[in-house]
What does this fold into?
Amino acid sequence: MELQTLTYIVVGMTFAVYIGIAFWARAGSTSEFYVAGGGIHPIANGMATAADWMSAASFISMAGLIAFYGYGGSVFLMGWTGGYVLLAMLLAPYLRKHGKFTVPEFIGDRYYSKVARIVAVICLIVASVTYVIGQMKGIGVAFSRFLEVSYEMGLLVGMAIVFVYAVVGGMKGITYTQIAQYCVLICAYTIPAVFISLNLTGNPVPQLGLGSMLTGTETYLLDRLDQVVTELGFAEYTTQARLSTLNTFVYTLSLMIGTAGLPHVIIRFFTVSKVSDARVSAGWALVFISILYTTAPAVAAMARLNLHETIQPQNAENLAYAERPAWFKNWEKTGLLVFKDKNNDGLISYTADPDTNEMVKVDRDIMVLANPEVARLPNWVIALVAAGGLAAALSTAAGLLLAIASAISHDLLKGVIRPDITEKQELTASRFAMAGAIALAGYLGFNPPDFAAGTVALAFGLAASSIFPALMMGIFSKRINKEGAIAGMIAGLTVTLLYVFQHKGVMFIASTSYLGDMRPNWFMGIEPNAFGAVGAAINFIVAFAVSMATKAPPEHIQHMVENIRIPAGASTAQSH
Amino acid sequence: MADNNQTSRKEYWRANLRLMLVLLSIWFVISYLCGILFVEELNTIRLGGYKLGFWFAQQGSMYGFVIIVFVYARKMAALDRKFEVND
It folds into this structure.
């Protein structure tokens, strides 16, 4: 069957399933809308968390980044998984014990302050909106390639689907849909990887294939890749460093604590029924995530090898432009792959030297999507990858939008502005908040700041510098008080935002970068995306200093902290 | 009785912190030490087609994280029962 038709059928079928589930499990109460009514099984919640977590960036961009950064791409692998260790030990069980609907609500209770709650809402919204931009870009890329429409058109279609899906479903609908989306995305990711690994090494397990010899040779795959890329003048794949070791260290730390501090992930742990379930569920989430994350490096290395060997086969002439394969032509149409015949010989030359390199643009984001075609896998696999990419982007977008909507309707409207509204009014308000968030994210999607994973990395910096420290100190210290927490959050967020906007432009509009991107002036050589850990350190220091200078929290708050440390007596998440 | 309860809760919390400290040390070693700071030294050792430092950074650390989280969940469930604070 024609690839185009097949893609429409597969993508259409998955969409029908998601929307069907969203309507079947639509939320009827605020408890269902915010935390799916509690009582989701830990394994099911782990799977939903994995889909919530694995975004367009994980699915589409990450392997592409690793493919071009080699070892330097490891920060994303370690950073985006290691955070679950922190989440499982430092946050999830205690926040679940506290038993409320949202993250700002916990901060408001623990720091006995509406101001703290509002500051938390602002931090949450800034981090989540930044994160949503990456999803929008991912949706646009996937649609534009597979349904052969422009990026802008793809983005609009994506927004419409997210709209239907997130507004109706609430957390209950989103949870069940995410389980379906996990199944789609993990199949879409691993099936091509298994085929490609078999083709190249004869080993069907990509994680083992990456460490195996190429079929019919005595050469290890990674050694061969190192050799191919260095011959073309690129850095050696397995040792290629991205900036300094300090930057790698700080970047990884920023991603880890950012992961643990992302509200849309944390609220997933409010949906299980017990504290011990929250711990186990974090483990299952990490298992489901790691299936993709340990496959990604194999996909990356194999895609890179395939790309070079297609264009520049060993012991033969370079590929003639006139004979370029269909995938090449398809990606040229999207403008994400650009060839320029600089020496007019009709052959494609792909090297590290910008003067002779004729592959003027190879967008990193296309690596995973083009991979099955480059490896000449059957059409149904390619169609499945399209559905998987969209599942990843949609599930994360829905989770983020829920976090944003609940912060606005539950924390701002119900918590601060109009405490007297009825549950039904609150539910309506949360749906309006969600629609507004989608419109904003869509606007920013039309002006994307960086490639998708880069955009997402910024959100982590913000979550790391503001939310994570406030939550952790709230649990592990009885001494941190209202004044300290508020000052700390504001300091962490401000420093990180100023640093990021300075280099990337205000709200990522490049022309508004007030002093210009001053790479030589990076603080200790730390790139803006990696700055969250520095912001977090500032948050911890400021919060501690201010708390010590002011009086200890009231008695009942200290009791509350003692209480959340003990699992006994947990009830289902509720609003008051 | 209330005092007893208080002491046992404090002990429970201390046991939790001790366990956390051990597991977070392992977390730090497999990612930050093996995967970043000592990656060049480890890369001189091979694990099949993998250089060992590269393997830790792109495979091993993640397997380790999964094990750490499950060990924590298991040991904490035992602590919950021992101190009778389970829910």
Chain A touches chain B through 49 residues (CB under 8 Å). Residues 309-371 of chain A form one domain.
